[in-house]
């Protein structure tokens, strides 16, 4: 188990992309990581785009980034909601400043854009937000996964196996 003893924080909000939340969480747990879901409210059920539920473990405001080894930002429509919370942006910036691994897929790039951490960073995302990414100063690539230091990005659900292989490697190091 490559991630035994690691604690990972994952954002969650309504309309997350079901596979982009649950596939990474299950893979990370299979590798021994402890994954906590945080949201606007603690112990609330959030429903994904395709109806899969997720219950939050804590509220954004109650979480300390120093207690975690990595950050997971799932895609779907939830990143557009998530980036409106100052605590989400604060936590994202803290992970970036500490050079702790940040995984983002599909529309999750919106959170990193709003946190203003993409200047000069090599990334990928769903092509639908390519312009948003490049306008934020990122260097966008049409690849299944892009690793730039501590930031691991991916495009969409078919890329999940490549994304998780690389994200797990970055967390384990």
TrEMBL record:
<feature type="domain" description="DJ-1/PfpI">
    <location>
        <begin position="6"/>
        <end position="169"/>
    </location>
</feature>
<dbReference type="InterPro" id="IPR006286">
    <property type="entry name" value="C56_PfpI-like"/>
</dbReference>
<dbReference type="InterPro" id="IPR002818">
    <property type="entry name" value="DJ-1/PfpI"/>
</dbReference>
<comment type="similarity">
    <text>Belongs to the peptidase C56 family.</text>
</comment>
<dbReference type="Pfam" id="PF01965">
    <property type="entry name" value="DJ-1_PfpI"/>
</dbReference>
<dbReference type="InterPro" id="IPR029062">
    <property type="entry name" value="Class_I_gatase-like"/>
</dbReference>
<protein>
    <submittedName>
        <fullName>Intracellular proteinase</fullName>
    </submittedName>
</protein>
